[in-house]
TrEMBL record:
Gene3D superfamilies: Tetracycline Repressor, domain 2 (1.10.357.10). It comes from Nocardiopsis mangrovi. Residues 11-71 form the HTH tetR-type domain. SUPFAM superfamilies: Homeodomain-like, Tetracyclin repressor-like, C-terminal domain. The keyword Phosphoprotein does not apply. This is TetR/AcrR family transcriptional regulator. Residues 34-53 bind DNA. Keywords: DNA-binding, Transcription, Transcription regulation. Pfam families: TetR_C_46, TetR_N.
Length: 209
C-alpha cells in the first residue's frame, strides 16, 4: 500500500469503500458479497473497512444512505418553485428515471436488493422513497396554487397526483432497464400523461357527487 493512499482524507477513503461496495453488492448480492472482495476492489485492507464502517451491515447501510441522497439531490436539483406544475413534475420524473438509467448498480443495491433483506435495510429504503415523495409532493402542491389563494387542483388532489406519479415511476424502473429503446424523457411523458388523466377523472367524479 502506497504512502499516497495512506494520506487520503477519511471522507475520500469512505467514498472509495462505498463505491466498491455498490459495485460488489450489485453484482454478488448482499449475502454472497464479502468484505474481502470489497476491500480488494477498493484497493485497501480488510481491517480498514471494519475500522471505518464497522461491519458488512454497516457498509450496506452506508451504501443505501449515500445512493438515496444522490437520488434525492438529482430530483431536487431540477425542481424550481416557479415552474408550471406539469413541467416541474416532468422534470422530477425525468431526473428520477435518468438517475436510474445512468446508475444501474445504485438502483440494484438501493431497491432491488435492500428491499428484500428485511430490517433494518427495508426501513432505510422506505425512508429514502418517502424523501423523494415529499420533494415531488411539495413541488406539485406549490405549483398548483393561483394568485389570490385559488388553486388549479386541491391540495389533496395535488398530493394524489404526486403519489400516482412517484408510484408509477417506482414500479416502472425495472421495465425501463429492460427496454433500452425507451428513454427517461419518453417514459416521463407517459407517466405524467396517465397521472394527469387520473386526477382529472377523480376531480370530475368528485364534482358530480
Amino acid at each position: 500500500m502506497s504512502s499516497k493512499q495512506k494520506r487520503l482524507p477519511r471522507e475520500v477513503r469512505e467514498q472509495q469503500m462505498i463505491d466498491a461496495a455498490v459495485q460488489v453488492f450489485s453484482r454478488s448480492g448482499y449475502h454472497s458479497a464479502s468484505v474481502e472482495e470489497i476491500a480488494e476492489v477498493a484497493g485497501i485492507s480488510k481491517p480498514m473497512v471494519y475500522i471505518y464502517l464497522g461491519s458488512k451491515e454497516g457498509l450496506f447501510t452506508a451504501c443505501i444512505h449515500r445512493e438515496a441522497d444522490r437520488l434525492v439531490r438529482a430530483v431536487r436539483d431540477v425542481v424550481r418553485a416557479d415552474d408550471p406544475p406539469e413541467l416541474g413534475l416532468w422534470q422530477g420524473l425525468r431526473a428520477f428515471f435518468g438517475f436510474v438509467a445512468e446508475n444501474r448498480q445504485s438502483w440494484v443495491v438501493l431497491y432491488q436488493q435492500a428491499r428484500t433483506q428485511g430490517e433494518p435495510f427495508s426501513k432505510e429504503v422506505a425512508a429514502a422513497r418517502a424523501r423523494v415523495l415529499d420533494e415531488i409532493t411539495a413541488m406539485v402542491v406549490a405549483g398548483t396554487g393561483l394568485p389570490g389563494g385559488g388553486r388549479i387542483i386541491s391540495p389533496k388532489d395535488a398530493e394524489i397526483l404526486a403519489r400516482i406519479a412517484t408510484g408509477a415511476a417506482d414500479a416502472l424502473v425495472d421495465w425501463l432497464l429492460d427496454h433500452p429503446e425507451e428513454t427517461p424523457e419518453s417514459l416521463s411523458d407517459r407517466v405524467l400523461n396517465l397521472a394527469l388523466v387520473g386526477v382529472e377523472r377523480a376531480t370530475a367524479d368528485s364534482a358530480a357527487l
